[in-house]
Specification:
Elements: H1 3-27, H2 31-52, H3 58-80, H4 85-108, H5 115-120, E1 130-133, E2 137-140, H6 141-159, H7 161-169, H8 171-176, H9 181-222, H10 226-251, H11 255-273, H12 279-289
Antiparallel strand pairs: 1-2
Organism: Evansella caseinilytica
Main location: membrane
InterPro entries: ABC_BtuC-like, ABC_TroCD
């Protein structure tokens, strides 16, 4: 596959996996949790490096995933003690991210682990770090990891589709039916953490947040059916990846930033032209009744 092909495939995998997770985040009113986890995983990455003195390996993924789960646990713990969820997210997010930044400044030294790279990422470097897999051949490491994450996310969503649907719309009903709501919550937070971490190094926190929230929010405007919403959200993420790449090439700018910008354009089109919630449709119905 060509250099451009690997970049587009990697970005499409980010868009698809984040699109699936984002729908459940939107329905559970936890959109800002994506922003929190995409930043607090920096602390896990830094601690994993300080423990191993290596920037490569599964320990980085494990450290970041643990930081993401710790974020979810602390937010839930503060919320259970009467603090509003948005305030809980704000406290945990800023504190853990600040600790990560301080550790980078004081303990990491000259190693290439910086805040700008963590926030923006650089998807253009993806094709240069490769591995060889049996029956598949040589592929970029990030592409392989993201493909595996997409399979895991899709599999778990399909396996527990009924449980996700009930716990997202009516947790009280789910608990009365014997569904382990708390366990499902932390399983979902694990998926959010792992998906965020998998995309983190490739595309940075900004694109991860954009892909997790904006395509799902756009899909929410087009349909009230969960299955359709999942398909639309992933499709919007993939579409944004492709359009964003060619826009970045055209105007010679950041690829990840351009992809994140394109998700906003997709949302703008949705809020204007979606059948039920679109501004144009509402205006036409208003004019028709006059």
């Amino acid at each position: 596959m060509s250099y451009t092909g690997w970049i587009l495939l990697t970005a499409a995998l980010v868009g698809a996996s984040c699109g699936l997770i984002g729908v459940l985040l939107i329905l559970r009113r936890m959109a800002m949790m994506a922003d929190a986890i995409s930043h607090t995983v920096l602390l896990g990455i830094v601690i994993a490096y300080l423990m191993t003195k290596s920037l490569h390996g599964i320990h980085m993924l494990i450290g970041a995933a643990i930081a993401g789960l710790l974020t979810a646990f602390l937010v839930q713990w503060l919320h259970s003690r009467g603090i509003q969820q948005d305030a809980s997210i704000g406290v945990v997010f800023t504190t853990m991210f600040a600790i990560g930044v301080i550790l980078i400044s004081t303990s990491v030294g000259n190693v290439h682990l910086d805040v700008q790279h963590a926030l923006m990422g650089e998807i253009a470097f993806i094709p240069w770090k490769v591995t060889t897999l049996p029956l598949i051949g040589t592929i970029p490491v990030a592409t392989g990891i993201l493909a595996l994450i997409l399979i895991i996310v899709l599999g778990i969503i399909l396996l527990f589709y009924k449980e996700w649907k009930i716990t997202s719309f009516d947790p009280a009903l789910a608990a009365s039916l014997g569904i382990p709501v708390v366990a499902m919550h932390y399983l979902f937070m694990t998926l959010v953490s792992v998906t965020t971490v998998a995309a983190f190094d490739a595309v940075g926190a900004i694109m991860v947040v954009a892909m997790l929230i904006t395509p799902a929010a756009a899909a929410y405007l087009w349909t009230d059916k969960l299955s359709v919403m999942l398909v639309l959200s992933s499709s919007f993420g993939i579409l944004s990846a492709f359009i964003g790449y060619y826009l970045a090439v055209w105007i010679d700018t950041s690829i990840s930033g351009s992809m994140a910008f394109t998700t906003g354009i997709v949302f703008l089109v949705s809020i204007l032209f979606s059948p039920s919630h679109g501004m144009v449709g509402k205006w036409r119905r208003t004019v028709g009744t006059v």
